[in-house]
Amino acid sequence: MDVSPQQTRRPLRRAFQSAELVLVGNFNPAIIRPSWLARNGLIPDEEADAAEITLLRPEYAGFSIGWATIDVRFDRFAVASTDESQWVTLRDLLVGVFALLDQTPVSAMGFNLSAHCQFAEEEALDPLLSKLSALPAVWKSWIDRPILRQQKVKGARPKGGGTEYTIEVQPSVVVERALFFKAHEHYANESEDVGVVLDILQSEWDGFFEHSIGTFEAVAYDWISEAE
Amino acid sequence: MSTAAQRFAGEPNPGLAGGPSRFATSFLRPSPPSLEGTPAELKPTDSEFKVSDPAPIKSVVALPAPPRSSPERFDLLQQFVGTVLDVGEETFSARLQDRTDQSRGSEIAEFDLEEVSDFDRDLVQGGAVFYWSIGYRISPSGQRTRVSRIRFRRLPAWSRSDLRDAEQAVEIWGYMLDDSE
After folding, report:
1. Shared domain check, B131 and B85
2. What was the ipTM of the complex prediction?
3. Could you tell me if residue B143 is left (phi over 0), alpha (psi between -120 and 50 degrees) or otherwise beta?
4. With an 8 Å Cβ cutoff, are A64 and B9 in contact?
5. For residue B46, what is the DSSP state?
6. One domain, residues B80 and B146
7. Are residues B93 and B38 in the same domain?
């Protein structure tokens, strides 16, 4: 399948996007505090002072620093941002944290992107959704009025280094004339060396977004082309 | 006749649902930590995008936590990564590379120091890396304002392993100097 964005159409408008970086390993939530990030020069003091705290406990740290939310448990470290201009800063933040905590065992890393992709007014959405909801006939024998609610395609990103790459799509029930896409790339790290993870993060983070957004648009417009 | 879009009405909202209830499943079996992200932060009242009608049938699925609303949104048009070349009294020059179109070559530009946030001002030094983002800031009421933002990269200058290596080097040099005396 050609996954490159089709230049003949204008790009889909992406709404309510979110990028999230997740590490799985052994973490100490008691360390990760806005003040600790500021003290180590990873965020400005002003952002630490203005942080919105969800919960800070020895076993959990959850807070927002305006452009990013941070969620740390014993086995999971996640940073997320809905601001596309800060996705690169999200990567830098994680690199900074684990340059300091460089003995932390990390067994896996996940890149995540979700977005509601909105079509232009003139695009016919109904045929597209009908195509998405098409199911093999066998289902009709067992379920009345069956529809396929979601498509999830699993494989590997071309030129990507991940263990697994997954794209999910379903009609958006939040934004009109839109499809809701989720992309996820999984990196297993048998060595548990956080340095390995940081190297991958620096080399693959941008490519993941470029490819995922291209795939969202290509898949959506491929359906439209076939529906026309 | 119902449209395809209407047929999907009443389905759990992919952005809001946030997956199955953690409470409901937590006492059945411990779930392994997931690498998948949580859904996009949503603002159903955002006037920029027309939001679908609420589901006509109430769902018995456990309700997720209410979405956090952020005061504004930023639509990115173009982003450059810059490296500071020279810093003057009121301006600094930098080499820029377009992150949104990496096929374009680098270029040199001059910025007013006034463009830099106060908290980043100390970071404006030769060799420092920053991100210059151009886009629309969209207020909760839908007001679009074209803005340019500069944010300097913050990475710890010294990691623990760097410091450890430096300490070892000092020790080794110390022994070597002692031996030579």
Report:
1. yes
2. 0.82
3. beta
4. no
5. -
6. yes
7. no
Q: Among A174, A182, A194, which would you mutate to test the B interface (most chain B Cβ atoms within 10 Å of its Cβ)?
A: A174
Mean residue pLDDT of chain A comes to 87
Residue A88: is it exposed, middle or buried by C-beta count within 10 angstroms (0-12/13-18/19+)?
A: buried
| Residues B84 and B100 both lie in one domain | yes
Range(s) of the domain holding residue B60: 1-69
* B167 domain-assigned: no
User: Could you tell me if residue B147 is inside a domain?
Assistant: yes
For chain B, how many structural domains are there in total?
Answer: 2
Search chain A and give the residue with CA nearest B80.
A85
Q: Which of A104, A173, A187, A224 to mutate to test the interface with B (most CBs of B within 10 A)?
A: A173
Q: What is the pLDDT of residues A40-78, one digit of tens each?
A: 999 999 999 999 999 999 999 999 998 999 999 999 999
Is residue A217 predicted with pLDDT exceeding 80?
Answer: yes
Instruction: Identify the CA nearest to A46 among candidates B155, B117, B157, B129.
Output: B117
Select from B42, B70, B155 the Cβ nearest to the Cβ of A92. Answer: B155
Residues B133 and B151: beta-carbon distance below 8 Å = yes
Same domain assignment for residues B52 and B113: no
CB contact under 8 A, A102 and B160: yes
